[in-house]
Amino acid sequence: MPNSIHAEKHLSDRNNWLRAAVLGANDGLISTASLLVGIAAANQSHESLLLTGFASLTAGALSMAAGEYISVSSQADTEKADLKKEQYELHHNPERELLELTRIYEKRGLEPELAQQVAKALTEHNALETHARDEIGITEVSQANPLQAAIASALAFIAGGVLPVIGIFLFPADTLVYSLAVLTVVGLMILGVVSARLGGAPVVPATARVVTWGVLAMIATSIIGNLFGVSV
C-alpha cells in the first residue's frame, strides 16, 4: 500500500481568479466590439474607430480593475469582521460555541456523541479555523483576494478587447461592421470553450451563454449606430 498521501487538485481552487478573468475577457470583447460596431455603423472614420478602440481598452481595463478591487475588498472586509466576531465569541462564550459546532455536525449526519467528540477535537486543534470553515463558510480557497481579482480582470479585459481592435487593421471599411461581428462571435466561442475547460463545466451551454449575450449586445449597438449615427 503506498505511503504517499493522495492530494487531489480541485477546479474550485481557481475560482478566485477564474471568475474575474472570464468576466474581464467577456466584458472586454463584448463592450469593445459592440462600441466599434456601433461607431462603424455610423460611418465614422478609420481614425475615429482606432481612437475609440484604444480608449475603450484603457478605460475598460482600469474600470474593471477598480471595480473588482473595490468589490472583492468589501467581501474581504466582511470576512475579517466575521472572523473578529467569531474570535470574540470563542474567547467569551467557548461552551456555547462548542455546542453550536456540535449542532452543525449533527445536522450533517453525525450521531450526537460523535458530533461532540469531533467538535471538541477540532476546537482544540484550531477553534477559529474550524468555526470559520464550518459555521461561516470561509476557507483558504474561498477567501477574497482583491489584488488578484483586479489584476486578472484588467489583463483579461485587455486580452478580450484587443481582438476587435486588431480587426480594424485587418478588414476593409465597407465590410467592417459584419467582419467585426463575425470576429467577435469567433472570439466569444473561444472564450466560452476556454472558460468551460478551465472550470470543468459543460462546453456547449457555457459557450452558448457567452455567444448569445455577445450577439445581442452587438445587435443593439449596431441598430443605435444606424438610427442615430451621422457622418460629421
TrEMBL record:
<feature type="transmembrane region" description="Helical">
    <location>
        <begin position="210"/>
        <end position="230"/>
    </location>
</feature>
<feature type="transmembrane region" description="Helical">
    <location>
        <begin position="20"/>
        <end position="42"/>
    </location>
</feature>
<feature type="transmembrane region" description="Helical">
    <location>
        <begin position="149"/>
        <end position="171"/>
    </location>
</feature>
<dbReference type="InterPro" id="IPR008217">
    <property type="entry name" value="Ccc1_fam"/>
</dbReference>
<keyword id="KW-0812">Transmembrane</keyword>
<dbReference type="GO" id="GO:0005384">
    <property type="term" value="F:manganese ion transmembrane transporter activity"/>
</dbReference>
<keyword id="KW-1133">Transmembrane helix</keyword>
<feature type="transmembrane region" description="Helical">
    <location>
        <begin position="177"/>
        <end position="198"/>
    </location>
</feature>
<protein>
    <submittedName>
        <fullName>VIT family</fullName>
    </submittedName>
</protein>
<feature type="transmembrane region" description="Helical">
    <location>
        <begin position="48"/>
        <end position="70"/>
    </location>
</feature>
<dbReference type="Pfam" id="PF01988">
    <property type="entry name" value="VIT1"/>
</dbReference>
<keyword id="KW-0472">Membrane</keyword>
<dbReference type="GO" id="GO:0012505">
    <property type="term" value="C:endomembrane system"/>
</dbReference>
<dbReference type="GO" id="GO:0030026">
    <property type="term" value="P:intracellular manganese ion homeostasis"/>
</dbReference>
